Amino acid sequence: MTINYKRRLLLCLAAIIFTIDMTAQALHENTDVVFHHPWSHKRVAYLGDSLTDPKNNGSKKKYWGFLEEWLGIEPLVYGRSGWQWNGMVRQAEQLKKEHGDSVDAIIIFVGTNDFNAGVPIGKWWNETEEDVLAAVHAPKAIVKRKKRIPDTNEHTFRGRINHALGMIKQLYPTRQIVLLTPIHRAFAAFSDNNIQPTEEYQNSCGEYFDEYVKSVKEAGNIWAVPVIDLNSLSGLFPLMHEHEQYFHDAEKDMLHPNDAGQRRIARTLYYQLSVIPVEL
Fold first, then answer.
1. C-beta atoms surrounding 124 within 10 Å
2. CA pair distance 91, 78, nearest whole angstrom
3. What is the C-alpha to C-alpha distance for residues 58 and 255, in angstroms, rounded to an integer?
4. Residues 183, 265: contact at Cβ < 8 Å?
5. Per-residue pLDDT for 11 more than 60?
6. pLDDT value at position 261?
């Protein structure tokens, strides 16, 4: 190897190292330019229950308020205390009536009240047997096949989800729809006629809370909608004494997050939404 060749090789290596170093510095100095949150300054509708309802006194500021502050999202809030999955179509229809298609995305955060009300889990599908035209490595022919269609029985949890998502996807076929799983729940006593045990206990129809959470996650695949699993990702766990700091009242309301809990939900959504497209 000649001396001139060695010099050229060293110069090339020096140039490569210099380029890498300058690129790293540029990325470090321009982080805000490199990353643009896809939900920034979008118009987002929020459907759900008391964890979304601005009138609920569990916190002064809800998760959507933090997202408005951090991302400039314009919130269209329709969540109402006590509502269940069978009310989501009504909330979506009200959104449509008041804002038409002038919304970028819809976030649905509901399900905990269905558990508390003892709504049976139910089933996703109804099966029938029908004649259908098919051809599989053979001449086409009419054959008998089993067929399944979504069960929309509004007296069951899965039936309610099927009915709601079927209708909402028809109302907003070009808009992003995101489901949030219900967060963990612990003891709450709002009156002599409204005392809710922790999720350690079955509800009145004999189901544990996690079955409702699982159903919301399954709905994502059935209806082709993203699901953000707040039940796990938020880290909120009111069954532990140490997490009382995130909820409204350690003695009477370990169901509703306080401002700190709502902020934790919002922070989880901030990062999770960053990988979900809002413009489809």
1. 17
2. 6
3. 9
4. yes
5. no
6. 98
Displacement of CA 70 from its chain's centroid (Å): 18
* Alpha carbon distance 280, 276 (integer Å): 10
Q: What angle do CA 32, 37, 38 make, to 5 degrees?
A: 145
**Is the model's pLDDT at 29 over the cut of 80?**
no
pLDDT at 2: 58
